[in-house]
Automatic annotation (TrEMBL):
This is HRDC domain-containing protein. It comes from Paramecium primaurelia. GO terms for cellular component: nuclear exosome (RNase complex); nucleolus. Pfam families: DNA_pol_A_exo1. Residues 422-505 form the HRDC domain.
Length: 676
């Protein structure tokens, strides 16, 4: 189906354009054929339009613009349907469209300044070590004080774990190993204590400390809720903490800059066991957001592994040991929202409420694994100690920012999916990933959400060469995340720069030279327009001339041959419109605007002497990037379109002269001239 669609587009490209049509009509016998073809064409187009739900009154002239639009829409729908039908070809799930201007917790609560939203490696955020056995690395402090200078001086991409020694030196504690014969059943759920100010957090810490003072140790269960959608690095949204007697829910947002130093009194105290389930992520989030490290971790995930349970999820442990279940849908809920609903709070509470009971039961079961006459390596508590060893490994995990090295990142993705890629596609994919990452940092959004990997794979496979094709590959206009939409031209730029041989690149180059480059050159000779770089494709002009010659000869000589010849240089203003809409035009427009008004006027005057009529005022009124008003855009479409058409004749001549003069080797053939 997609091949067919490509063939249709190729055929459309071969159709004669307006001026040629006029010329052809003059040839004897042609008029009737053309008129009949027109009728067929119009009915086909109307048929297509009714398919895409855009039925309008019949027209007697060929509605080029509508044809273009209709076909685009039609092909886009077809591509989407094709993807749906063919589940093997990845039909990536579209991300939930999230408004990028939505206020984030860092802005609302004023902690944006401590978020390391840059390309530098992550710098640990702790300023002071409680329960320290070794000093805090001076390099960390140096980096905290002058990040950019620091990384110019040292080529470090990861700091050592600040609590490495404390964690490594820790030996299994009696209060972990010695499980009471009779353990208390879990308590029934009661509303948790909500903590959202430093005083209440201080009281909680004091309470835990008092228990340590009384019993020589304490036990707490901890879990986090997190959001990785609305920001580049991700954000901890909730810290749940349960003691033997009470559940606490800590809202980190209003406490952001204080939590680290306060909670580290508990989290690095080796006399307090911290029970987590599957702490791999939590350990890293705590480091990233609060500079918190865990000394003396017991991870029930590792316990479930040692016990070789059927499953290792928290849900499974909850049903096995407590005969309770929880609603998984909250796992993916938006935990940044405030106030949190009672249901969400309850869900969060459950994640730690039963965990100390599960910890007791699991330690019992682990003890039972050690049969009296079967002491592995003479270690009486082999299984519990193994869990503690694995938990140490988890606690020693070091947070790293999302991979800066996209080569490596891509290799990881490919390995995970057991997928292969040829070297060229790999390079292109890396370039696209790099661009996506940059946008992620720029907008502080998760790149994997605003442009999921499967879309990038799709683009690499299909190598779209126009904005329309690109849009269709991304799931159609309505489905594209606004960040991607605002930067489509950047993606197209990467694609076009990468693959210089695709014929439609030539079309864009053609259009570019005809309308923008030449105009700009003439208006402002020294104007630098960055995006135009994308079309620096060298083309063989000889080949082009030869082809034209044969066409011209075929048509037999005619006094209009020169005119006709010149027209072959210029094509497809409609496609150009698309390019303009999605960024290039606006870029050019911006650059032009920045030039002094004087200079413009001066050159415009020269311009008017040279060329009869180029309506520059119309030309530079291109739609701006931010413009979303559809009607306005439509209006601009028509105006720009008209302007381009009005300019046609003059422009073509101008360009023709230029080429003759310069005798450069720079031109090309749009693919519709590939008829031999
Ligand atoms: P948990 O440790 O299960 O409470 O999960 C902590 C955080 O990890 C959640 O708040 C989610 O942000 C994320 N998370 C957990 N499970 C999933 C999942 N299945 N899909 C996506 N995110 C998840
Ligand atoms: Zn968790
Ligand atoms: Mn949780």
């Amino acid at each position: 189906m997609q091949t067919h669609a490509k063939q249709v587009v190729a055929l459309i490209n071969q159709l004669p354009k307006k001026e040629e049509l006029k010329f052809l009509e003059k040839q004897p016998g042609n008029k009737k054929i053309i008129s009949e073809t027109n009728q067929v064409f119009i009915s086909v187009i109307n048929g297509l339009r009714s398919l895409v739900g855009d039925v309008q009154t019949n027209s007697t002239t060929i509605p080029f613009k509508q044809i273009e639009e209709t076909l685009d829409q039609f092909l886009e729908n077809a591509a989407i349907q094709y993807d749906k039908m063919n589940k093997l070809s990845l039909a990536p799930k579209q991300p939930q469209i999230q408004k990028t201007n939505q206020l984030k917790p860092k802005d609302i609560y004023g902690f944006a300044d401590v978020i390391q939203l840059n390309k530098l490696p992550f710098i640990p955020v702790l300023k002071y070590k409680h329960y320290a056995q070794t000093e805090l690395d001076q390099k960390i402090i140096e980096a905290q004080n002058n990040p950019y200078q620091f990384f110019e001086k040292y080529s470090i991409d990861e700091f050592s774990h600040p609590y490495y020694e404390e964690i490594m030196r820790l030996t299994p504690q009696d209060f972990v190993i010695d499980v009471p014969q009779k353990i208390n059943r879990y308590r029934d759920l009661e509303p948790p204590i909500m903590i959202n100010n430093p005083d209440h957090l201080g009281e909680l810490i004091l309470k835990i400390q008092q228990e340590v003072d009384q019993n020589g140790f304490s036990e707490i269960a901890v879990d986090l809720e997190h959001n990785h959608q609305i920001s580049y690095l991700g954000i901890t949204c909730l810290i749940q903490l349960s003691t033997r007697t009470q559940d606490y829910i800590i809202d980190p947002f209003p406490l952001w800059k204080q939590i680290g130093d306060m909670l580290s009194v508990v989290f690095t105290n080796p006399k307090i066991i911290k029970v987590f389930h599957g702490a791999d992520n939590d350990v890293q989030w705590l480091q990233r957001d609060f500079g918190l490290y865990i000394v003396n971790l017991f991870d029930t995930f590792h316990a479930s592994k040692e016990l070789q349970l059927m499953q290792n999820s928290f849900q499974f442990l909850l049903s096995e040991y407590c005969k309770k279940s929880t609603d998984k849908t909250y796992q993916t809920a938006d935990w940044t929202q405030r106030p949190l609903s009672d249901e969400m709070i309850k869900y969060a509470q459950i994640d730690t409420h039963y965990l100390l009971y599960i910890y007791d039961r699991m330690r019992q079961d682990l003890k039972k694994l050690n049969k009296p006459n079967e002491n592995i390596n003479n270690i009486p508590n082999y299984y519990i100690e193994t869990v503690l060893k694995r938990s140490k490994e988890t606690a020693l995990k070091i947070y790293k920012k999302p991979l800066q090295d996209q080569d490596q990142s891509l290799q990881t993705i490919l390995n995970k999916q057991d997928r292969r890629m040829d070297a060229k596609s790999f390079d292109l994919m890396v370039k696209l990933l790099e661009l996506r990452e940059e946008l992620g940092i720029k907008y502080d959004q998760n790149p994997r959400y605003f442009l999921p990997n499967p879309f990038l794979f799709k683009i690499v496979e299909s190598k779209p060469t126009t904005i329309q094709e690109l849009k269709s590959q991304l799931g159609g206009d309505k489905n594209i995340h606004e960040i991607v939409k605002e930067n489509l031209w950047q993606f197209l730029k990467v694609l076009l720069e990468f693959d210089e041989k695709i014929p439609t690149v030539d079309i864009i180059q053609e259009e570019q030279q005809n309308t923008t480059q030449i105009q700009i050159e003439e208006i402002q000779s020294n104007l630098q327009v960055e995006p135009l770089k994308i079309v620096q494709v060298s083309v063989n002009i000889k080949k082009f001339q030869n082809k034209n010659k044969s066409i011209i000869e075929h048509l037999q000589q005619n006094e209009n041959v020169e005119l006709l010849k010149s027209q072959f240089y210029c094509e497809s203003p409609f496609k150009l419109l698309n390019v303009f809409h999605d960024g290039l035009g606006s870029q050019i427009f911006q650059s032009m605007k920045e030039q002094s008004q004087q200079q413009k006027q001066q050159i415009e005057e020269q311009q008017q002497q040279k060329i009869e009529k180029i309506n520059t005022a119309d030309f530079i009124q291109l739609p701006k990037l931010e413009e979303t008003n559809r009607d306005q855009q439509k209006d601009l479409d028509i105006r720009l379109n008209n302007t381009l058409q009005n300019q046609h004749g003059t422009k073509i001549l101008k360009r023709h002269q230029k080429i003759e003069q310069q005798k450069t080797q720079k031109s090309n053939i749009s693919n519709r001239f590939q008829i031999s």
